[in-house]
């Protein structure tokens, strides 16, 4: 899904850090601050005596000035990106849990395409993939998610098509991008269905087609985990109850 727009360097940095884990954004902010602070704290360069020294003097002064302002500005952007990353992580988890709880067949259609991509990304995370949300802001052949697992690269294209089947052209396009980028595999994920031609093209290739039914199966795998945690909690509380009753009985003697 293409969302092309011009952004400033500050916005690009914010978005880049937001794609990383929150702890990584905080670490980058700290490292950047101390590095730039060390440059900004250096003694001011001596005034040039000869004209040939003017270039080095201007360059040194410029770097020192940039470092002085950058030591505050850049870490602040990185911290903002870390906060955005944490918020998005909570949002993805909430989307996954809500979809897992839903019994409605339209659970995948009642969310925006941005939320659909976040939901798909979280489903892959739960399967052990490292996920980077591409955002579709670059000429990348419509790649929405970039996955890594065991040093292998996988590409994902998301299609939240409510009324149409995903055709062979979409699948063929992703396969071409996979070859160009040297990806080990790829996924086309839709909330709907695929055409027969699309399924025939993907057959026998390192390309998997995930329709709405399969995706909901992935998502609903969250429910047993939640139930297991709740059951374990109840079991632990039940195991403690006899011990507490025994202590109370001893105290009453």
UniProtKB/TrEMBL annotation:
The record's Gene Ontology biological-process terms are: DNA restriction-modification system
Recorded GO molecular functions are: DNA binding; restriction endodeoxyribonuclease activity
Keywords tagged on the record? Membrane, Transmembrane, Transmembrane helix
Tell me where in this chain the Restriction endonuclease type IV Mrr domain is found. 108-218
Name the residues that span the membrane: 12-36, 66-87
Pfam families attached here?
Answer: Mrr_cat (PF04471)
Designated name of the protein: Restriction system protein
Organism (species): Paucimonas lemoignei (Pseudomonas lemoignei)
